[in-house]
Amino acid sequence: MKQTRETLLEMKRSGTPIAMVTAYDRLSAELARAAGVEMILVGDSAANVIYGHAATPQIGMKEMLLCAETVRRCAPDVYVAADFPFGADESPRAALANARRFLEAGADSVKIELPDERAWNALALLRDAGIPVVGHLGLLPQTAASRRQCARTEEEADALRAAGRRLDALDPDAVVVEHVPDDVGASLAEICRAPVVGIGAGRRTDGQVLVFHDLLGLSEKSPPFAPRFVEGRALLAEGMAEYVRWVKSRGASLDK
Ligand code: KIV
């Protein structure tokens, strides 16, 4: 069954946790689909984990579109949100054109980080044009000055809840909230009608999202709030080392 906005809303209504993971290519999309995730995020974390850049603003529409097309091809029945890369909303015209390019590439919606009025205006413009969106609140890696937890003071938590109400009024398909205290993640899930999917936002959001390379232990280092379920990098490194031993020993390393 194809996952849609409606099936995600139904999961929220029935209290069924939503599993979301980032994917960028065939392997990540196929593994996510086979494991039964309901949502894939084609994240601009591709800048780091796929293209080897230091920060997410270093990726553009060209690379993101290739990832979105590939993920849709390899996970045809999963809900796919594609991340607006930094600058994709530099003008209202650019925001609309870029969102449409993502939908043509097969995405169900576009995800936008919401650091300022320009981003909020872009999101409102997309909704006016009938384009489905996912809003990203809390820690916003494209513009954050530090990786510290957000909404730690009462004042900051109130501001985040107000942003949640503002976002809810724009009727997004989902909300991503990153690196906030558990009770703030929980209150956001109560405020929003759409599913609130957390990363480092506690256990009481409507679902969880992690970066593919973090949860499989493929990243050299993961953020403190991102659990690793297998040490994939060490396993793969051992396989590679074994291959080189096999070549250098002219095949003897595998002889019994
Ligand atoms: O790009 C990304 O991977 C993200 C997640 C951290 C939510 O935005």
Structural summary, described in words:
The protein is α/β, with parallel strands linked by helices and 256 residues long. It has a single domain (5-230), classed as TIM Barrel. It is built from ten helices and eight strands. The protein has helices at residues 5-14, 26-35, 46-49, 61-74, 92-104, 117-128, 154-169, 182-191, 212-215, 232-248; strands spanning 18-22, 39-42, 79-83, 109-113, 133-138, 174-178, 196-199, 207-210. α8 links the parallel β6 and β7 (196-199). α2 (26-35) packs across α4 and α7 (154-169) packs parallel to α8 (182-191). The longest helix is centred in the C-terminal third of the chain and has 17 residues, at 232-248. The radius of gyration is 19 Å and the shape is globular. It binds 3-methyl-2-oxobutanoic acid (KIV).
Helical fraction equals 40-55%
Please, what is the CATH homologous superfamily?
A: Phosphoenolpyruvate-binding domains
Q: Which residues form runs of ≥5 with pLDDT under 50?
A: none
Please outline the major beta sheet: 8 strands, parallel, barrel
Itemize the secondary structure elements and their pairings.
Blueprint: H1 5-14, E1 18-22, H2 26-35, E2 39-42, H3 46-49, H4 61-74, E3 79-83, H5 92-104, E4 109-113, H6 117-128, E5 133-138, H7 154-169, E6 174-178, H8 182-191, E7 196-199, E8 207-210, H9 212-215, H10 232-248
Parallel strand pairs: 1-2, 1-8, 2-3, 3-4, 4-5, 5-6, 6-7, 7-8
Helix pairs in contact: 2-4, 5-6, 7-8
3-methyl-2-oxobutanoic acid binds at residues 22, 41, 43-45, 83, 176, 178, 199, 209, 211.
Give a brief rundown of this model.
The protein has 256 residues and is an alpha/beta fold. It contains 10 helices and 8 strands.
